[in-house]
Amino acid sequence: MDSHHDDYIARATAHDGLVRAFAIRSTGVVEELATRHQTYPAVTAGLGRLASGALIMGVMLKQAEHLLTLRVRGGGPAGTLLVTANGAGEVRGLVSNPQPDVPQSRNGKLNVSGVVGRDGQLTVTKDMGMRHPYSSTVELVSGEVGEDLAYYLARSEQVPSAVGIGVFVREDGSVEAAGGYIVQLLPGLSEETVGEIESKIRALPHPTTMLRSGDSPEDILTRIFPAGYELLDRIPVRLHCPCSRERAERALMLLGREALEEMRLEGLERGHTAAVCQFCAAEYRFTTAEMDELIEQSRAA
Ligand code: ZN
To answer: Residue 224: how many CB atoms within 10 A of its CB?
Structure first.
């Protein structure tokens, strides 16, 4: 499963390398996430913000195959939000309840903290090919996602960071714009420069206002650094799930013989058993004959 939109991250530095900046357009990725999981608007926004932030934090990892997982457990009616991104600009995500039966907007804004909840934690896990993945948990600040990611970056990674990410959902539930920026201030910047950057960021329109008016990720960076910045690269981003029929088969085998026999019985009338990937809703079908074979193999194992 792949999305084919002009979604990418512009990665840049400014002020002699003392500022790291990332701007992203992720409209196609978020639209496809929403379609795959049939999310209600406020959940689309919450999951989309998390996926957009994860894509940026993913490309901060040193290598393409390194993995970053963001898990938000806010105690809200949407349940847990989980996204995984890698260093190559690929992301996938899921939410335990995509269609919570609560008002999706409040005061004309999508009710993201209302569906995510604000009483809980954000857990960040990084798998960088070491024996143990690194994991860190912070309390949620607002349940609006962007602020929560900024708090994590400042608190846990000790890098003061401005995070602005948004998702604009149309009346019909489709995604018109998604994306934003993360700007990180490294030690050594003068107070004057920090003040300048902060005032530029405070004066920025909402990320989706910029994207809807046609701003590219580079245009967003130009608004933040009018005196110029150095563009390092443009990284295409996409929704991608590494699931496959082979992986589904291995997952089935792990369930053990008894569970397989039960599934075979349940699927007997249809003539097949379906294994559905939680992350992307892809369905892998195994005929009764194939189930028999798996059961036979699990007996031998
Ligand atoms: Zn999948």
So the answer is: 22
Amino acid making up residue 20:
R
pTM over 0.90, yes/no = yes
Task: Give the domain ranges of the chain.
Answer: 8-239, 245-300
Cα(92) to ligand 1 centroid in Å equals 8
Q: Does domain 8-239 have CATH number 3.55.30.10?
A: yes
- Cα(287) to centroid(ligand 1), Å: 20
Cα-to-centroid distance, 286 and ligand 1 (Å): 16
pLDDT mean over 44-72: 97
> The domain 245-300: what is its CATH number?
3.90.1280.10
At 23-35, the pLDDT tens digits run 999 999 999 999 9
Using a pLDDT cut of 70, give the percent of the chain over it.
98
| Cα of 168 from ligand 1 centre, angstroms | 25
Cα 190 to Cα 15, 19, 61, 187, 301: the distances in Å are 10, 11, 27, 9, 64
User: Ligand 1 mean position to 289 CA, how many Å?
Assistant: 24
